[in-house]
Every structure is written in C-alpha cells, then in structure tokens.
Amino acid sequence: MRWFVRGDIDGFFGLALDNLVQLLLIDALCRTVLGFDEALLHGRVLPGVAMSLIVGNVFYAWQAKTLGEKTGRDDVCALPYGINTVSLFAHVFLVMLPAKLAAAAAGADDPARIAWQAGLVATLGSGAIELGGAFVADRLRKATPRAALLATLSGIALGFISLGFLFRTFANPLIGLSTLAIVMLTYFGRVRFKGNIPGGLVAVGLGIIIAWATGMAPVGETPQGAGFHVPIPVVGDLLDALAAGHLVTYFSVILPMGLFNLVGSLQNIESAAATGDDFPVAPSLAVNGGGTLVAGLFGSCFPTTIYIGHPGWKAMGARAGYSVANAVFVTVVCLTGTLGWLAYAIPIDAGMAVVLWIGMVITAQAFEVTPKAHAPAVVVGLLPGVGAWGAVMAKNGLRAAGMGTPGGPPFHEGLIETFAATDTWIHGAFALEQGFIFTSMIVAAATVAVIERKWVTAGAWCAAASVLSALGLMHGYAFTPADTVINLAPAWPWATGYAVMALVFVSAKFVTDPQEGPGH
Predict the structure, then answer these.
(1) Alpha-carbon gap, residue 289 to 297, rounded angstroms
(2) pLDDT for 202-228, tens place per residue?
(3) Exposure check for the chain: N or C terminus, fewer CB within 10 A?
(4) What are the C-alpha distances in Å from 183 to residues 17, 180, 390, 468?
(5) What angle do CA 165, 169, 170 make, to 5 degrees?
(6) Residue 302 in 3-state DSSP?
C-alpha cells in the first residue's frame, strides 16, 4: 500500500472542504456571535485547531498504512477526522455565549476572553471523557447490533449533512446542480474524465468558475490577519478558567457532549469496519480524545472527532495520503491567516456537492450492510437524528427572527404553546434533541431484538433508556436565553415511558403467540 494514490486527490478535496466548512463556521461565529478579536481568533483559536488536526490526521494515515501492510491490502482508507460540527455549535451557543453574557452582565472588562476560557474548559472536559471512554467503548460496540450503530450515523448524515446542503444546492441551483451532476456522474456512474482528472477536482473547479462568473465570489470584504501565528500553550488561561468554576457551571453540557463524541466516533469506526477496514477501537478513540485535549491546551475551543463518511471517502479511492494532505492544508490555513482569503475567494457552494454525496452514501450504507430483515430498525434509528435536525432548524428560525440573540427576547416556555397552536409539537422535538444519539441507538437496537423475538434483550435496551432518562442524559431539557439545553435532572415522564416499553416487551413471551418466522 502506497502513501499516496490518485484517489487521495478526490479524498483530500472532500475532507479538506469538510474541514474548511468548519473553519469558516468558527471564523464567523467567533467574530460575530462571541466578539473575538483578530488576535484571539488568529493568534490562539486557529493555531489550536491546527495542532489538534495534525495529531489525528497523521495518526490515522499511519494507522491505515500499517493495516494495509499487515493484511497485504492496498485499499485501506484512513479514518476521516476533523472538527465536530455538533460540538462546534454546542460550545458556541451552550457554553461560550452564556459565559459571555454572564460576564458582560457582571461588568467584566473582557467578556469575549472569558467566553473563550469557558470554551477551553469544555474542550478539555470533552477530551478527557473521550480518552477515558476509549478503553471501554469496544464492549459497547460488540453488544450493539450493526443496524443500531449505522442507523444513528445515517440519521445525522441525512439531517445535518444531506438535507442542509440540499437546501443550499437548491438555493443556488446553477452552481449547486451543475456540480452535483459532476459528482453523480463520476461517483454513482463510476466513470472518470478523460486524462484521469479526478471528479472531485472537476466539481470544485467548475464551482469556483461559476461562483466568480456569476458574482457569488469574492465573499465579503478584503480579509485581515495575514501572517504566521505560532501555536502556544494557553496553560495560564486554562488555570484561570478552572479557578472561575466553568467546569462545574457547564458540566451539564460537557458530559453529554463528551459522551456524544465518544459514541459517535465509535459508530464511525463501525462504519469503517463494515467496508472491511477493521481498525482497533481503543487506540483509534484514544487518539481522537488526545486530539481534543491538544486542542484545548493550545487554544482551540472545539473538540475533534472521527468523521462520518469513511465509506464515501473509500469509495472515492482515498487511502492514507488524503489524511496527511488534509493536515498540511489545515496547518497552512490556520497558521498563516489565509482562512479569511479562502473564504473571500472560494464559496462553500463550490464544493458542497461532494459533501452532499458523502451524506447520501452514509445513509445508503446503513441499509446495504445490515440484514434485510433489520431494515425497519434502520428506519426507526434514522428518525431521532432527523428529528434533532428539525429541532435545530426551528431554533435557527427563531434566532433569525431575533429571538435568543443579544438584545433580543430570550427563549422561553411560552414557545411550546405558540408552536402547539400550529399543531407543531415542539416540546417533543426539544426533548428528542437532547441525547438523540443515545435514543437512536437504543430504539434501533430494541427494534432489532423485537424483530428477532429476543424479548428480554429488547426490554433490557428500553430499561437502559429509562435509566439514562432518569439520570438526565436523555430528553430532559431546559430553556436558556439562546437555546434549549440538556438538563441533568431526572426526566421522569420519559423514564416512565421507557420502563413501560420494557415491561411490554418482556411480557410478550407470555401474552403473545408467534405468527411467522423471526424477521418476517
């Protein structure tokens, strides 16, 4: 297995674009929502991001090369790795924005810096959970049906990746549909352009040309912040943040998000194993956790993760080199201040078709590699992720109308009745959003057990959901000025509901008679 093959070019464009999207989000949210100045953003946050991504990208490339040599294969694809999108939004709106607002209300001289410090603590806490959980997560993987693990990923891919970029595709149809056609032609049609030009390169290049020809690019004003920025450990700020009690204040966000990242990365390793790339779980998860710890130590407020999409990148022909190339790309972008120039010249729309395709491949894989009889379980597992995305869309709509923004009215319980008047049960959406990755995995696993008539197993999964709800890790939520967040208090209505489900399934052995064979 070689370090770099032609397919790594396509893979690089896909992964680099995905990471670039996260970097553009970080740039926009840190400047506009949190009020970070150029020195803080370019001198601390982005260098920390670079350090964290170097750790994972280089390790996972080496891991793929090693597995290829060990097995004698030349088709092993490195685990994709980058910034966690869900954690990015959670840290901005659930940790840093509340910290900034509280600091401003208390008359602090620099509320933005206090917000950044709170984000550092949240990132360190998430990394510690990911690192510690790496050594027990494999047991969870072995006990959980593949349909449950992959359906959860598919729900996230369908909602947070595919539907989001599908909206953007049809908002800008000239660039969106033309680049989508290139991606469909080369990846679904399994053809290559004359001269062996990679399809991803053609799609992105066409997108850039259309963007400049139609006036979509350049984007914004001429950027600032160019120059080399050396990564520096921010131990002093971390100590100040710990002394300020941010770890305790935001523990209700740190714990579930850390568990979310751990389980999500575990599921992505399962996704890779389904394609034949069976990487060892403990070191894969440990390096992911280590990358998040490095992020916090060097100034980034955002955890890293093993990305959704390994089947997509492998189908492109990517192997090990695309991961190393991504590390080089992100390092250059983050340390030289060129992120602003890239955002200025290359709209996200130029490469969104590649990301949209990856989301579609992930969703399809859940049905392709699980037993046909388990298809209903995959559908059940898809729903919580799509529902959570819908809840996010509803809240984004409220923010777009000025609610939950600085100076605007806060989120409040009256929203439940307002939505109910339009027959929209937003209370259920807000509840489903909290811990949805656990909900998806558990209900899908319980459905597999029901299909196979393993009544006690189905009941045990529902009992686990009841316990998690009683611990406050699922469904219970509280309103903050800008969001709805998980509430680490017993969510008794849902705990009781799951307990009744468990009783129903366990009693099935005694109150029902089989009609057809298992799985029919």
Answers:
(1) 12
(2) 888 899 999 999 988 887 667 765 678
(3) C
(4) 14, 5, 27, 42
(5) 125
(6) coil
